[in-house]
Amino acid sequence: MLIAIGSDHGGFRLKEEIKQLMCEMNIQFRDFGTYSTDSVDYPEISRNVAQAVANCECTRGIIICGTGIGVSIAANKIKGIRAALCHDIFSAQMSREHNDANILTMGERVIGCGLARAIVEKWLTTEFAGGRHSRRVCQIADLEA
Q: What contacts 19, CB < 8 A, 6 or more positions away?
């Protein structure tokens, strides 16, 4: 598994924490920036992470900003992306099991590091359930056509 990860300045510190978690989990990642707390525009970072996932360069992606909202909206503009904004463990699990979410978004200003780590761990270790959910994911893809 290769995870694309990115953040804007508002999510930089949490991104660094999540990178540490992925190292502990022996999960490889590619960091698409930003690399400091200097102000940047999140749509470009969201696009780069989302395109890496959509183009199958990376298995899944994680994008973090202050709230998780902006990066979620931006990532979902890329064809093939199912970005889920999750601030609790249950939503993270369901986004994978039922929606086959391929990008997780979170907000550094909304949740703390401990909860974020638990969300990411659950999201990375949960597989898509398939079955009746596959039909629905296909219907979502049809909306992009």
A: 5, 29, 31
